[in-house]
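Weekly sync notes, structure subgroup
Attendees: PM, AL, DS (notes)

Item 1: joint prediction request from the bench team. They want all two components modeled as one assembly rather than separately. Inputs as received:
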Amino acid sequence: MLQIIKNEYRFLVRSRIFLGISIAFISILILTIFLGNYQTQKQEQTHKNAKDHVRQQWISIDEMNPHSAAHYGTYVFKPANLLSSLDEGVNSVTGNVLRVEGHVQNEITHSEASQMQAVSRFGKLKPSLLLQYIVPLLLIFLAFSSVSNEKQSGRLKLLVLQGAKPLQIILSKIISVWLYGMLLLIIVLAVYSILNFQSLTAEILTRTGLFFLSYTLYYFIISAITVFFSARWQNATLALTSMLGIWIIWTIFLPNILMSSAEKWHPLPSRNEFQSAMQEDRSKGLDGHNPSDERSLALKAKVLKEYGMDSLSQLPINFDGMRMQADEEYGNSVWDKHFGNNRKILREQKQSFQLGGIVNPFISLQNISMGFMASDNLHHQEFLLQVENYRRVFIKMLNDKQTYGGSKTGNWGWKEDNAFFKSVPDFDYKPTQISNVFSNYLLDLVLLLLWSILVIVLIIFGTKKIKIG
Amino acid sequence: MRSLNIFLYEWKHLVRSPFKIVALFLFILASVYGLHNGADLYKKQNTEIERLKEKAQEEKETILTYFDKGEKGPEKRPWVDVTKPFWSIYYTPTYHFKKPSPTIVYNIGQTEQYGFYKKINRYSSTYDADMAKEIANPERIQSGTLDFAFVVLFLMPLLLLVLLYNIKGQEAEQGFLPLIFVQTGSKNWWILSRTLFYTILLLAVLLALLLYGAALTKVFESDNAFLSIFLYISIYLIFWVVVYFLILKYGKNIISNTLQMIGVWLFFAFIIPAVIHQWISIEKPTNLMVDLIDIKRDKTDDIYEQSNIDTDKQIFNLYPSLKQTKIAQDTIAIKKVRNDSRVALINVAMKDGISKLEKDNRAKNELISKTYWLNPVTYFQNKLNHSSNTHYNDYQMYRNDIQAIIDKRIEIMILDIWNDVKVDKTKYIEYNKTFNK
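Output from the run, pasted for the record:
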C-alpha cells in the first residue's frame, strides 16, 4: 500500500501542471493567511482606539450624578478575534457597537455589511473560503481519474496480477489524495502559527487542532467518494461530473435552502413585535422615573417600614437610587425573558440546521469551522451575554452609589466625584473557552465521523463489485 | 447542416441526457424556491407595515379622544398637555416605511442588512438602533437567502456549464469531429449554433421564471423594472456564454474543458469578489461610529451647558423668523422654549457627524464600483439590487427621507412653540398628515 502511495506521488510530482497549480495555490493560501492576519491586526487597532476613547471619556467625568452617568452610559465594541483571520464566520454581518446604559438592554448595531454596497456573497478571502470551497474541488480534480485511468491503461490489471488487492489499491489512491489535502491544511496552520507565534495559547492550539481534525475528516469523505466513483464508473468524465454535481449540491445549494428552512420552522419575532412585547411586560413593572407609580409607592412603604421611618426625608439613604435599582431588576427579568426567548429560537434553528449534516457533511464542516474559530452565532451570543452581565454590574454600581453614597432622597443635584467614576471597571471581554461550548459541536463532529465510516463501508463493499478489466 | 438542423439534433441530445435534464430541473426548482422566498419577504414586510400603520392609527385615535373629552393627556402623566405644540407633536405617531418593491421577488439584495420602518421622535437620527436589520439569525444572513438572483448569478453559470461541457469534446474523444466539420463546413458555426441553442433555451426558461415571479407580486406596477431585470439577466447569461464558448472553441477534450469552465466560474464567483471584499476591509475598516457617539453624548451635553446667548444665536440662525416672535422678547417665557429648542442644535450636530460617516461609506462604495470591470458578478448583483430597490443607495435614500421628516418635525415644533400656537383637534390631525406623508 505504501508503495502505491509513493508511486502516486512520484507521478504527481512529475506532472508540471500539478506542480504549477500546487505552487500557485499554496502561494494564494499563504497570502490569504497574511491578509487575514493583517486585517485582524488593523481591526484590533481600530477597536482599541475606540475602546480607549470611550473609556477615557468615562474616567474623565469630573463630577456627575450617578444616575445621570447611567444615562450617559458607555459603549462596548465587539473585539476582533485572532482566530477569525482563519474563518470570519458571522462577524461581518453582526453589529459592532453596543450601547450600555440604564433602563434598557440594547441590541448590537452597525455591522460591516451595512456600511457598503454588496461585494461578495461568500465572504472575504479567508483561508476558510479556500479550504471549504476550493480545496475539495482540487481534491476532486486530483481523484476523479485516479482509478479509471489505471483501468484504461491496463495498469490496474497489472497491479492485481502483482498481488495487490483492489481494496488496497483504492485505499492507497484515497490516502494519497487525502494527504495532499492535509498537506495544504498543515501549511495553512503552520503559517498561521508562525505569524501569530507570540499569541498562541493552549486554547488557540486546541481550537486549531479541532479545526484541523474537522477538515481532515471532510477531505477524507470527498477524496474517498471521488476515488470510489472513479473506480465504479466506466469513464473519468462520469466520475468528474457526478462529483461536481455533489459538490454543487453540498456547498452551494443545500446549506442555503436548509438554513432558510430552519428559519421558517422556528421563526423569530419581528423587531417591532419584540420591542412591543418587552414594552408591555416592562409597563407591568416599576417605573424608576415615576415616584407616584403604584409599585414605587409599595416599595417606598416597604423601605420605610424596614428603616422604621415615616418619610423619605428621614431615611439615611437615597430612596431614588433604590427605586432605580428595583426598576433595573424588574427590567432585567423582562430582558431575560424576551432576549432569552430569541436565544432559544436561535438555538433551535441551529440544531435543525446541524441535522442537515446527515445529508450534507459540508454543513457540519461549516458549523464547526466557524464554531472552533469562535466566530459563529453561539460565540456572538456569548459576547452579548457578557456585555449584558457587565451592564447589570455597571448600572448597579451607579444605583448603589446613588442610594448609599451619602445623598438624600430627591437630591438630584448631588454629584459623585471623579475618583468614583475611575473606580468603575471597564468591560473586559473573556473569550469563550472551547471546553464550555464543545458540546454544541459534538453533533457536527459525530456526523462527520459517521460520514467517514459510511464512506469506508461503501468502499469495502463497493470495491467487490468493481470490474478490474 | 443548417442551424435549424443543429438545433433539432441538440434537442434530441438534451432529452437523451438525464444528467442535463436533472440539472435543468434542479435549476427550475431552486428558482421557484427563490422566487417564493422573495415573495414571502415582500408579503412579510407589507404585513408588518400594515400592522404598524394600524398601531399608529390607534395611538392617534387615543390622542384624538383627549381633544374630544377636553382632557390634556394620559391620566398617569399629569404634566402632559396635548394642546401645546411640544406635547402634541410628541404624541404624533410618526412612522416612515421603506415599502418593498414588488421586484424584491427576484432579488432580496441588501434588504436584510437594514430595517424597513422607523418610528421617529424628536431625538431620532438615521443611525439609531432601530435602523438596524430585523432580528434574524446571523448565520443565515451570512450564508444569504436563496433568492432568484442568487440562482441566476451563481447557479445559472453552473447549469450552463452542465449543458455545454461536452460540446465538441465528446465528438473529439469519439473521433468523428472531422466528419462533423466536413458536414457543417464551419467549426465555429457548429459550436456557436449548439451554444446558441442552450442560450435560447435558458433565456426562455428565465423569462418563464420571471413571469412566474411577476405573478407572485405586482411586478408590472414598477416602471420598467421587469424589463431592466430581464435585460441584466440576459446580458449576464451572454457574458457566460461567451466565456464558455471560447473555452469550448479552443478546448481539446471534455475533462480539460470542464476543468477550465469550473475554474473560470470559481474565479469570477468566489475568488475575485472575495479578494475585493478583503481589500476593502483592509483599506477602509469598519467604522465604529466613535464620532457619532461623541456627538450623542459630549456634544449634546455641550449644547445643554452652553450660554443662553450662544443658544439663542444658534437657534435664530437656524430659524430667523423666531427673532420676531413675542416669546423672543419675553425673558421668562423664553427659558422653556429655548430648552425645548436645543434639540434642533443637536440635530444639526448629528447631521454633521452623519455626513462624515456617509462620506466614508461613499468612498467604500466608489472603491467597489471601480473594480466592476474585473468583477462582473458583483456588478450584476448591484445592478439587480438597484432594479429591486434593495441597493445600499436605496437605503441611503430611505435614510435621507427619514432625516427630512426629523427636520420637519423639529422645525414645526420649534416654530409653533415660539409662536405659542394652540393645538386643537384639527391642528393635531394636520400634524399627523404633515409628518406621515
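Discussion: The radius of gyration of chain A is 30 Å.
Action: AL to compare against the crosslinking data before next sync.
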